[in-house]
């Protein structure tokens, strides 16, 4: 049976400060405060097309830092759909420094099953430069508490932040892997109108990643999480909402995830060719059937890159191969 999710946004609710990159209203497209009626209407709409839902998710803002009675009213409304088995769980996103044992008790009471923490970086200097208001230590503490209490743990990281570089992103990914999250989201930094980052960009103090640069580093950390058996459930901002109207600069592409997977396949193909000692000529590359387009690359970019290196490659499907496995 196909399941459906309901995503609800509480933009900027509970946030104690304004992060350099953040404009949740542009990201979510939401400008009004979420209320219990909105939840009921969203669930009813979702269940019209599906007999059962999987998760009701509250995104944007810092859910566990919003005014307590308001938070409980939202959770209570969502929880009734868990009680009647219309949905299987509730997912929230929040700040690492807004999680403690008392909050966790409330989340358990109202059927929250998954908590995503906006880590963004595991470097305290980068966090400070971007006005995050928490430390890497807060991420570690909150992650360990949530896992100990049985929540599904999600961690979110960003590449290309102000003050960051590729080495920092790799180190952040490594430290996130050490925390053994159940899921990860990777977001290349996008400059949005009305943010501190936009001011830094316009003054020349901040140079955002290009899409090509973001693909390079995001493909590296994506492969790190793959090898650690940690699912990456999102790579790059959704193209909905008001992202394009608020976009100023940075790595935004509607198919960023596919570009990154294609980059991994290109690296794996080069490694296979090198290990086989093949210097040039006609080569058949085999990948799992679902990965033909990723090995070929968007607009045949991978085939053309290998051609420029002397390889005339043909990509073919083979059942039984693993994700990112390339054989000749």
Structure notes:
It is a single chain. This protein has 328 residues and is α/β, with parallel strands linked by helices. It folds into 2 domains: 4-254, TIM Barrel; 261-317. Helices cover 42% and strands 20% of the residues. The protein is built from 13 helices and 11 strands. The strands form 3 sheets. It has a 7-stranded parallel beta sheet, covered by helices on one side. β3, α4 and β4 (112-120) form a beta-alpha-beta unit. α2 (36-49) packs parallel to α3 and α9 (211-227) packs across α11 (256-276). The chain is globular and about 70 Å long. The two termini are 37 Å apart.
**Approximately how much helix is present in the residues?**
40-55%
Strand order of the largest sheet: 1-2-3-4-5-6-8
* SSE arrangement, N to C: EHHEHEHEHHEHEEHHEHEHEHHE
- In percent terms, what proportion of residues is strand? 15-25%
Set out the fold topology.
Layout: E1 4-9, H1 24-28, H2 36-49, E2 53-59, H3 68-83, E3 89-94, H4 101-109, E4 112-120, H5 124-129, H6 136-148, E5 152-159, H7 166-178, E6 183-188, E7 190-192, H8 196-203, H9 211-227, E8 232-235, H10 243-246, E9 247-250, H11 256-276, E10 281-287, H12 292-296, H13 301-308, E11 311-317
Parallel strand pairs: 1-2, 2-3, 3-4, 4-5, 5-6, 6-8, 10-11
Antiparallel strand pairs: 7-9
Characteristic terms for this protein:
328 residues; alpha/beta; TIM Barrel; two-stranded antiparallel ribbon; 13 helices
At a glance:
The protein has 328 residues and is an alpha/beta fold. It contains 13 helices and 11 strands. Helices cover 42% and strands 20% of the residues.
């Amino acid at each position: 049976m196909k399941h459906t999710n309901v995503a609800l946004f509480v933009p900027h609710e509970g946030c104690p400060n304004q992060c350099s990159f953040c404009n949740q209203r542009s990201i979510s497209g939401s400008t009004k405060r979420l209320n219990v009626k909105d939840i009921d209407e969203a669930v009813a709409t979702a269940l019209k097309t599906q007999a059962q839902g999987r998760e009701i998710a509250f995104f944007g803002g810092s859910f566990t830092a919003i005014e307590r009675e308001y938070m409980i009213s939202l959770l209570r409304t969502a929880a009734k759909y868990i009680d009647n088995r219309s949905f299987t769980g509730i997912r929230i996103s929040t700040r690492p420094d807004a999680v403690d044992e008392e909050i966790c008790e409330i989340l358990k009471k109202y059927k929250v099953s998954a908590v995503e923490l906006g880590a963004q970086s595991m470097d305290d200097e980068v966090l400070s430069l971007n006005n995050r208001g928490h430390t890497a230590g807060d991420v570690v503490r909150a992650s360990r508490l949530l896992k100990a209490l049985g929540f599904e743990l999600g961690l979110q990281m960003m590449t290309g932040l102000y003050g960051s570089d590729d080495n920092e992103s790799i180190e952040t990914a490594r430290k996130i892997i050490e925390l053994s999250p159940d899921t990860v989201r990777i977001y290349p930094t996008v400059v949005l109108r009305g943010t501190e980052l936009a001011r830094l960009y316009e003054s020349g103090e901040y140079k955002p990643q290009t899409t090509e640069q973001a693909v390079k580093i995001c493909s590296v950390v994506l492969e790190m999480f793959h090898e650690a058996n940690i699912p990456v459930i999102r790579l790059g901002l959704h193209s909905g909402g008001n992202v394009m109207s608020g976009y100023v600069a940075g790595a935004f592409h509607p198919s960023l995830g596919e570009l990154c997977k294609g980059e991994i396949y290109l690296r794996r193909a080069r490694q296979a060719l090198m290990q086989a000692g093949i210097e040039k000529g006609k080569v058949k590359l085999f990948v799992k059937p679902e990965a033909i387009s990723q090995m070929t690359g968007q607009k045949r970019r991978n085939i053309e890159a290998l051609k420029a290196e002397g390889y005339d490659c043909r990509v073919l499907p083979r059942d039984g191969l693993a994700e990112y496995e390339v054989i000749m």
